[in-house]
Each structure stands twice: as structure tokens, then as C-alpha cells.
């Protein structure tokens, strides 16, 4: 079966968002353009890592260009996107591997999110070779979302993604574990329930 690539070059909208209540949220990346929408599910930690790495990569692009790259230092307010995910949210796949790159010629950030796959090395290859084979742009690979966005849209994405991640349950002031509405058993209080 041939690989399905959901390509948005550029998208009208590329955001991270959630469905559900804090503590039970499902995280999504969603790209929209020309009347079509693609939503892929991923873990909270993946959203946070993606946002942090986007900011780091953009900072490096600015540093290497001597400040001449079309990348703003902070997310411009005119591209802020605070609207919710487009509905209905239909998961195309669950993300396993993500990749980032800066296309210097096109002056675009390239974000790739690839579906989870079971990695089974062939008889004559080790796990590292099997992982390398998986990352090749093979026509028979797993489904992939590929998005090419401007520097300002990437900064806006990263800002919103971190806000979405931090909008969950507040942390316990003693142990930093998430507080449920009914409280939690705090290890720093020797197992007594803590409620805010």
C-alpha cells in the first residue's frame, strides 16, 4: 500500500489543540487549507517538545543569518490563532515520529508528523538500520502529515502549543504532580490527600 502524505504547503491554519477536559484531554495537530482539514493525535509531551524545538530552530536560523532571516523574535499578534480546532475532529492517525527542518531557499519551516509503526528489522539488519529505513521518504511508508509554514506562523504555532499544554490541571505546589479537581495523594505529605 502506498504512503499517504497529507501535504499543506502552506496551510491556511496549523495549530495544536485539545479535545476533552483537563486530565483527560486528547492532543491534536490540525492543518487546514482549501476546505480540507487533517487532524493527527499525539501525546502532550510530543506537543510540548515540538513547540520548544520549533522555537529553538527558529532562534538558530536567526542567529546563523545574522538577523536577516524572515523570522520574528516573538509571535506576531496579527497571526495569533486562538480559535478552537475545526470540528468534527477526525483522527487520521496517531503520531509516532516527528521531524523539523528549515528550508533556507523557500524560507519555510517544515514540520513532519509520521504515524506510529511497529518496527521489525529484517533478518539481516539491526534495529538502527530498521529505524533509518523507516525515516526514508519511502512511497510505502506510514502515513505522514507534512506542513510548510513561514517563520511567523511557526512562532505563533509554538506559542499557542505551549499555552495549550500549560492550560491543563494546575501543579501541586509541593510535589508538582497535577492536581485533580478532587485533590491528589501527595507524596510530599506522606500520602495524605491534598486539595486546593
Describe the model.
The protein has about 200 residues and is of the alpha+beta class. The chain has a seven-stranded mixed β-sheet. A two-stranded antiparallel ribbon has the order 8-9. The longest helix has 22 residues. The protein is built from three helices and nine strands. About 25% of the residues lie in helices and about 30% in strands. It starts with a strand and ends with a strand. The mean pLDDT is about 85.
Which geometry do the CA atoms define? globular
As residue ranges, the low-confidence spans are none
| Class from secondary-structure proportions | alpha+beta
Please tell me how large the radius of gyration is. Answer: 19 Å
Please write out the topology.
Blueprint: E1 5-8, E2 13-19, E3 26-33, E4 36-42, H1 44-65, E5 91-103, E6 108-115, H2 127-135, E7 144-149, H3 151-166, E8 184-185, E9 193-194
Parallel strand pairs: 1-7, 4-5
Antiparallel strand pairs: 2-3, 3-4, 5-6, 6-7, 8-9
Short description:
By secondary structure, the chain is an alpha+beta fold.
Properties at a glance:
single chain; 196 residues; alpha+beta; 7-stranded mixed sheet; 9 strands
